[in-house]
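Q: I'm teaching a short session on how sequence maps to structure, and I want students to see two examples side by side rather than one. Could you give me a first protein with its sequence written out and its structure tokens following it? Keep the formatting plain so it prints cleanly on a handout.
A: Of course. Example one:
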Amino acid sequence: MKKKLLLFVGLLFTINISAQTYRFIYELEFRNDSTSTSSKKEKMVLDITDQKTKFYDYNFIKYDSINKNTGSNIQTSSLTKQLLTRNSNSNTNEQYSTFNFDYFVMKSDDAIDWEILPNTKKISDFTVQKAICSFGGRNWTAWFTTSIPFNEGPYKFRGLPGLIINLQDTKGNYIYNLIKSQIIKENYDTTSFLETRYGKNPIPINLSQYQKLMLDNYGDPVAGYRLAIKNGGTVVINNQKIQTSEELDVMRKSIKERMKKNYNPIELNHAVVYK
């Protein structure tokens, strides 16, 4: 990371931001189950242009490259549910999410009240400074550097006088570390997989509507299979053949337990209560 970031800083002051994409790649370590010690790791992308800031899974870039080079239409989904766009120097986010077969966008105002502390340390060759905040029902610590003069960071975290290099909540459920940066000499087009779901326009939705969708789905996550079973058919769920209503009810209970266990959203204050 060190050489690539140092090279980036040198280029930063020689290249006009117009028609450029400044890309920062973070490694996100997160726990789907807050009671577990095991975690997952995914690469995330922060793209900054003169007009937009975007945050999304690195996985989309891999398949976007394949599609552009081969003319195919391979689709993938977010593993982190952290798909965002916002205008430059704005705290208003548009967050995208796939739910069943639909694509939604939800707007939110997310100004963060940071407390900048005098603590400093070295990360790679950067001198970074400490800042803390409360956001989304969690307490967070960020380390930022003024050597990269973007007041941006991963997910909805922005507003510091420099780029966030490291960010984590106090319980270690979400940890972001900057691992790479690059400059793309164009505004990188994400419209096929971010602003739309491979051509499907997102449906505007508010928080309460989205929470209702989640709770309705939790109430009966196998509802779409009931008619087939009633008509004597066989369905396959999680690689298991289901032929009777009794078997479907057992599967329903298993899925609900798994949904409840693996639910650790980054914004706890917006979480639904699975009973």
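Q: Perfect. Now a second example for contrast.
A: Example two:
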Amino acid sequence: MFCDNFDIYIAGAVLSVFIATGFSTLDLNAYFVSATFLGMFIGTIGAGVVADWLGRRVTFQWNLAIFGLASLAGAAAPNMEWVIFLRFLCGIGLGAEIVLGYGTIAEFVPPQKRGRWVSMLSMISSTGLLASTLLSWALIPIFGWRIMFIIPGVGALFILWMRKALPESPRWLEVKGRTDEANRVVTSIEDELRAEHGELRAPEPRMPVPAESIWQKARTRSASTHW
């Protein structure tokens, strides 16, 4: 998520360099920005569908591969037209990361601590703006604008390598009827915790929550009463 925000906010720095060096025009700069957010729009919608179909882990890996490779290819682009096209592909990965990042952490963290962890994820993600601003100021005068595409691209591929150890969401496995696989994931997490903290307390029983629509009348009445 940090690399995601870092890459989004480099636009302000590189677009001005594009104009100053004659690499681009104002019209092409507008296409660059539009291509980024069009890709993010498609990635945001598509990530949820694909993640429900193929799983969180596989979708996580694909979105990082698209984001990282497109960013590195953008650093080697010969003209602005190629930069715009590759930026569109990069945007697909960026948009998918937002959905998958928050969705996955919500499925692994218990409800009592979920707000804290999601807030922490948001804080780390937001520091990408500060990092991209400082590095743009320090590195572009020395290495040129291409370095700002190389940094998040390399970072994304490094995280892709790290994510080989990411387990599949047991919640998704259970929904898909793959109960044995879900049990193996949960058991491996419990075994790791036992090795660090000793025997675990028995989990508190919770009644299953039926699937509901956010548009149903019962939820609307409940929300109105609460407020």
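Q: What should students look for in example two?
A: Point them to this: DSSP finds ten helices and no strands in the chain. Also worth mentioning: The radius of gyration is 21 Å.
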